[in-house]
């Protein structure tokens, strides 16, 4: 009786199914309290800009000179600008564009970086040094002056083809994403150089697997963890880059109130209307900070060497 009682826990432990990789990753991620809180903050920000128009249906271009430069109130929770326009409505509208630019530029940078890094990591001849030379060349370029130059040269032509808002959006996403792929490429290359020599890859190669099959089924899935972490950081970098361009007056047109454009418009009224810059600046700060903390949490959760 006692022997069967003592043996039952061990038998239960043996028959217990191991946790899935996704559940184990979530368990590790939950231990990072700042990352978990940042997910909530980012969800509130994203939900606010996506659904805020339904809860606050105020036009972004309604002018009321009697209410210009007013502070936060019940009628205008975030105050008004120099034309009496409601800042909450303009922040909701502009937040969609700022976040869309951040995630779209991250996707462009991640795709280019993964392709370049995979080609370099799988190459055993001249392609690897050539691609790494190209990566080092892009890393050495001054990004902000190059951004300004490209936008100055191609902004008008893209506006004529895709419209004022669509042309600027495509240009900013392409330029920011095209200048932010280098860290992802170096990271993917390092992962590929390590993984291609592993035993499970050699076993698949010995069974006749092609390089394309090895990349799709064995190497790339095992290299996605660091890529996801790097991509989360690229979102915040893209948001800051778009805000910088809009603050310099080279981003979206003046009638499109992105968060960076709101900061640019508020710079001449900081002494009389600090709320005009405080709210968009706080939104940028919270978005970037939460994404950075989420990246830290993903790094810890996806690192197999950490035991939490």
Shape label: globular
Estimate the strand proportion: under 5%
Kindly provide the radius of gyration, computed on alpha-carbon positions and rounded to a whole number of angstroms.
Answer: 25 Å
What is the helix content? over 70%
Spatial gap, N to C terminus: 37 Å
- Helix count equals 12
Average pLDDT for all residues: 81
As residue ranges, the low-confidence spans are 1-16
Largest sheet: none
Q: List SSEs in N-to-C order.
A: HHHHHHHHHHHH
Number of strands: 0
| Structural class determined from secondary elements | mainly alpha
Family: Belongs to the binding-protein-dependent transport system permease family.
Membrane topology: Multi-pass membrane protein
Subcellular location: Cell membrane
Main location: membrane
């Amino acid at each position: 009786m006692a022997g069967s009682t003592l043996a039952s826990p061990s038998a239960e432990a043996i028959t217990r199914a191991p946790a899935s990789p996704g559940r184990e990753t979530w368990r590790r991620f939950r231990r990072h309290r700042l990352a978990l809180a940042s997910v909530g903050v980012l969800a509130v920000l994203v939900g606010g800009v996506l659904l805020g128009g339904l809860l606050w249906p105020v036009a972004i271009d309604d002018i009321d000179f009697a209410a210009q430069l007013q502070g936060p109130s019940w009628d205008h929770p975030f105050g008004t600008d120099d034309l009496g326009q409601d800042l909450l409505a303009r922040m909701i509208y502009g937040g969609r564009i700022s976040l869309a630019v951040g995630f779209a530029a991250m996707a462009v940078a991640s795709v280019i970086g993964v392709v370049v890094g995979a080609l370099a990591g799988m190459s055993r001849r001249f392609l690897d040094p050539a691609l790494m030379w190209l990566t080092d060349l892009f890393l050495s370029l001054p990004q902000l002056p190059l951004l300004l130059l490209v936008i100055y040269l191609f902004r008008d032509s893209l506006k004529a083809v895709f419209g004022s808002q669509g042309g600027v959006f495509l240009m900013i996403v392409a330029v920011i994403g095209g200048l932010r792929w280098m860290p992802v490429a170096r990271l993917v290359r390092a992962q590929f150089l390590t993984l291609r020599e592993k035993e499970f890859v050699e076993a698949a190669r010995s069974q006749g697997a092609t390089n394309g099959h090895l990349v799709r089924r064995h190497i790339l899935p095992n290299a996605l963890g660091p890529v996801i972490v790097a991509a989360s950081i690229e979102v915040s970098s893209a948001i800051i880059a778009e805000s910088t361009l809009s603050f310099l007056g080279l981003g979206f047109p003046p009638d499109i109130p992105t968060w960076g454009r709101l900061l640019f418009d508020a710079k001449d009224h900081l002494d009389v209307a600090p709320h005009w810059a405080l709210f968009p600046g706080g939104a940028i700060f919270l978005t970037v900070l939460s994404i950075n903390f989420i990246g830290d949490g993903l790094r810890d959760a996806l690192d197999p060497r950490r035991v939490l």
